[in-house]
Amino acid sequence: MIPITIEYALRALGCLAGSAPEVVGGKELADRTAISASYLTKILLDLKRGGLVEASRGSGGGYRLVRPAAEITLAQVAELVAPSALQAEALEEDGSYGGQISSAIHRRWCRRTGSFVTFLEETTLAEILEPPL
């Protein structure tokens, strides 16, 4: 399951991609994506710091994508808004946290999270948009 912060970031970026190259105001973006304005502002700040969106102030201001959706991977988005989702931190690296059982769990967890991370690295924003851009 994708953490809600990543889902919200993808919703916002998808909306911006569908509106490109036009800017979308913060309130309009919150309304279109059904994300609270305060939560969306935090997500957009992370995406701005990461160079995926740019913001303009004043009348006619808002947000827009900096790069085409086909050049933005889901892993880039996840790393900006929820980096812990990409890290297998639940168990010690060597599996020594709780003996044999923890070691087995750790190996299985790493295989699963590895597949998830690979999916995020190999999938672009454009590929998950409907209709595809």
Explain what the structure shows.
With 133 residues, the chain is mainly α. It folds into 2 domains: 85 residues, Arc Repressor Mutant, subunit A, CATH 1.10.10.10; 38 residues. Helix content is 54%, strand content 6%. The chain is built from 6 helices and 2 strands; from the N terminus they run H-H-H-E-E-H-H-H. Strand 1 and strand 2 form a beta hairpin. Helix 1 crosses helix 3. The chain is elongated, with a radius of gyration of 17 Å. About 8% of the residues have low confidence.
Characterize this entry briefly.
With 133 residues, the chain is mainly α.
What descriptive keywords fit this protein?
Arc Repressor Mutant, subunit A; 2 strands; 6% strand; 2 domains; 6 helices; two-stranded antiparallel sheet; mainly alpha; 133 residues
Compile the SSE list and pairings.
Layout: H1 4-19, H2 26-33, H3 37-49, E1 53-56, E2 62-65, H4 74-81, H5 100-122, H6 125-128
Antiparallel strand pairs: 1-2
On the 0 to 100 scale, the average pLDDT is: 84
The global form is: elongated
Report helical residue fraction.
40-55%
Major β-sheet, in short? 2 strands, antiparallel
> What's the CATH C level of the largest domain?
Mainly Alpha
Number of helices: 6
Question: In what order do the strands lie side by side in the largest sheet?
Answer: 1-2
Oligomer: single chain
Give the percentage of residues in beta strands.
5-15%
- Radius of gyration (Å): 17 Å
Q: What structural class results from the helix and strand content?
A: mainly alpha
Q: Give the total of beta strands.
A: 2
* CATH superfamily (homologous) name of the largest domain: Winged helix-like DNA-binding domain superfamily/Winged helix DNA-binding domain
Taking the alpha carbons of the first and last residues, their distance comes to 25 Å
Structural domain count = 2
